[in-house]
Amino acid sequence: MQFSQFSSKPNYSSRLTSFIIISSSVFILYFLVSIFLVRTKFVLTHSSLADVSAPTSIEHIVFGIASNKNSWPKRKEYVKLWWKPEQMRGCIFLEEKLDQQTNDTSLPPVCISGNTSRFRYTYRGGLRSAIRVARVVSETVALNHSDVRWYVFGDDDTVFLPENLAKTLSKYDHGLWYYIGTNSEIFEQNRFFGFGMAFGGAGFAISSPLAKILAKVFDTCIERYPHLYGSDSRVYSCLTELGVGLTHEPGFHQIDIRGDIFGLLASHPVTPLVSLHHLENTDPIFPNKTTIKALQHLFKATNVDPQRILQQTVCYDRWFGWTVLVSWGYAVQIFRNHYLLPDVLHAAETFKPWKSKGLSPLSNVYSFTTRPLHPDQCHRPTLFFLDNVSPGRDGIKTSYIKSYENCTYDAMSPKNLNQVRVYSQKLELGIKELKAPRRHCCDVLPSSAGEALEVAIRECKEEELIHMHI
Predict the structure, then answer these.
(1) Which helix (H) or strand (E) holds 389?
(2) Which of 133, 140, 231, 466 could form a disulfide with 64 if both were Cys (CB 3.0 to 4.6 A apart)?
(3) How many Å apart are CA 64 and CA 421, to the nearest integer?
């Protein structure tokens, strides 16, 4: 009996030890699993928040570019200027396959538009292809790309500045419904098609959630609009039915003007340049160059400092009494006298309306403020066009060479200059600066040579005024 009691103690002790070991193991396992789950949840949450808060970049945009088999072989040179195949997604939409297929990896892939014969088109004298071009919106969404914040649409002769496009769109919450673009430069065009319509050639952007809803209802919607002329009118009408209005962005440019568009470009608003259009119908933007070569020249400066391209800066030379207007990366104008700032910011009428003999007097009315050119060319400001751009550790130097003029002038005239050198820092705009932009200031520096003028661009001081000296 005593032996039996003695032998039961080890059994009890063994069971207790086993219980403690098992309980500890379960607790440790539970603890490790809990840590793993909490960490996983934190990582996923952090990743999700990081994705939401990450600035909009080129990779978040999908492009739908409308073209046709006849124009694409020539106009693809415009797209080559701005397309970055390693970063960009999208398609060039044609009505049918090209006779000669090419595998040019520097261009977007070609997509063939769907059949539109079931849709009516009744606009007399218009082009039925407007229906196909309008449906580029829904067909681009149907490509089903992932992680898309914005869908951007344009024509094959639309020249985008991708970094500025992404920077401009970053101002907006891509999770909301946005329709972003611009109007025509001609008042009559806007009156006829609507001031609330984004003109398609300038390019326009639709936020991803809105584009997906629009794509679902688009075909049934455009059946109600066979009488409209263009593709952009159909997109505008269907977005209007969804209750969404246009958000105007002045960095998009339709360019519904002809001839020398220097005045328009040199007076660009204080916002990043996003797009240019209709450049086949204008003079080359630099003298003595073809249209494509001129654009390539502009992109030399654009690639160095995209956000500063065409940005206007005005300063006043106290010694000679000159007014110096810098349109960075493009041109410098020097007026012989001092002029009030608002007067020199207006676009010089170097261009002509889209329709020289319009049916309405409003055909010659612009939708932006202009100033007339002096009838005598020798009394106009001296022009200097971009020659070279040199980035360095201390900043960026751009040089501008005087455009030829057959004029006589005195010793105090800016026409004695042959070159202007401009010094600046790379412009990096934050969301606050994009939403509330402010023009930069500049100073005329003591020049080392009598035939050159040096200008330094900088941020204005808080209470600094850009004004002429009386």
Answers:
(1) strand 382-392
(2) 140
(3) 40
